[in-house]
Amino acid sequence: MRQIVLGVDGLSCEDLVDFVQLLPKSRRYFNLDSPLAVEGSVLTSPQGLWSEVLTSCDWTINGCVGYSHPRRSLNALAVMQERDLFVPPKFAAEETPESRTLSINMPLLMPKAKVRDWLSDGSQPVAYRVKPSKLLTHPELQDYSPRAFSDLSSALGRPSAGAQFIECEKQRIDCAAILMQSRQWQRCFWRMSVFDDLSHFVGMGFLKARDLLITKPLLQLLDHLDDLLDAILSSGEATVHIVSTFSHVACQGMLNLNNLLATGGFFTTEGNENEFRSKTNRMAASLLFTGMDDITNFTLRSHEGQLKTSHTLAASPVSGCIYINAKEYFDDGIVDAHSRHSIHQRLGSFLHDTLGKKFWGSAKIVENDEQSLKLAAGPMPDFVVSIDGIEFSDQPNPPRSLNDIPRTTHRASGFVLLPANQMIESKAIKPRQVLEVIGV
Ligand SMILES: [Zn+2]
Q: Fewer CB in 10 Å around end: N or C, the chain?
């Protein structure tokens, strides 16, 4: 039996009731009585969460902590790719030309000659969107675009953005349908990103609302999805599991972990008098390491090229992740193996003292113990932090007003909606258990 994993990231268990209401034809194929909660640990990015799903391992083992990772310096980030995972995706060994994988808008997964049909999610530093190229004989696939906007932050200020997010997703459904008509695939990972986009754009609860500008196109989109799911499921040739790896909570504030580390004496920047120049330097550093051609202010979420690494003991180059500037990992690292232990201890106490007080115990601080850091195949953060309702921002300039604060932020809590005939004992699982439940 073929397996389809349909990602609906951004939706919560509570949204699920409204979501299935809008799928009147296909909902009878799902087990509506007992959706399974998926509870992650501290990572809230699609890359971090899907890495755990795809490899069936926690991030501490697979090495993926987010969209990017530092390689030879805390000043230099590279986009995280499938080949950077310490553990390959669980199904990778089973992919053959007769048992291909369809990968549609998935983070991390990359094209693989002859065994994968691949539509980009727009997060990888590559010039193509569709692979193999022979798929471009389909006019719909020629027009495939993973994103409605290259810059989400500026899109959020435009009233028409909602309709464009929806239109982009509608085209993707058509492209997914074309890929699924091929005879040779076995498993399909197909992620819709419109629910995440709309959560950022209009806030939470938009599936319930009926008076928004996006209501009509959104209902049409879900009708379109419903038709396709009904066609797939009535044929009996594939199972469909609907999976969300994260949901949204109202954003209550932003926190710059590097500024916090600076107050503890852990972090130093190269000075920032000429903002224009420093921004240009950061873009240049970013371009060099990601190879992307559309770096914008929004993609600069860290201090690329701005750290004074000769005076930095620890930094947060990736959202929520704090790395010690270890000589062992980084060419310009300054912490040697002897002092690492004491700095790790000092950093841990500092984070618990400051974040614990500031957020009244709602800060989650996960420590990577020294043993697993030793075993890791590359640089890994010593600490990862998440705080409900707080968006990490490493932009040097804080938001000027409440209007600049995002409406929502991610929470590592989602669900699996099982097929009607599948029963599971547990009520909640971890992201690493998702493929086991699905049987991929
Ligand atoms: Zn998001």
A: N
> Could you count the other beta carbons within 10 Å of the beta carbon of residue 264?
16
Would residue 410 be called left, alpha or beta, if left means φ above 0 and alpha means ψ between -120 and 50 degrees?
A: beta
Q: Report pLDDT for 277.
A: 45
235: how many CB neighbours lie within 10 A of its CB? 8
Q: How far is the CA of 193 from the centre of ligand 1 (A)?
A: 9
β-bridge partners, 190: 6, 104
396 Cα–ligand 1 center, Å: 21
- Helices within 40-89 (DSSP H only): 46-55, 59-62
pLDDT tens digits, one per residue of 43-102: 999 999 999 999 999 999 999 999 999 988 998 888 899 999 999 999 999 999 999 999
Residues 170, 224: Cα–Cα separation, whole Å: 8
Q: CA 343 to CA 365: how far, in whole Å?
A: 16
Residues 234, 257 share a domain: no
Q: How far is the CA of 201 from the centre of ligand 1 (A)?
A: 10
Domain match, 235 and 371 both: no
Are the C-beta atoms of 300 and 284 separated by less than 8 Å? no
- 3-state class (DSSP) for residue 364: strand
User: 248 C-alpha to center of ligand 1: Å?
Assistant: 8
Global confidence as pTM: 0.92
Over 90: is that where the pLDDT of 360 sits? Answer: no
The residue range of the domain holding 330 is 253-269+307-404
- Token pair of 136, please? 């471009």
Q: Tell me, yes or no, whether 332 lies in a domain.
A: yes
Grade residue 271 by pLDDT with cuts at 50, 70 and 90: low
198 and 314 belong to one structural domain = no
- Distance in angstroms (rounded) separating the CA atoms of residues 352 and 385: 10
Q: How many residues does the chain have?
A: 440
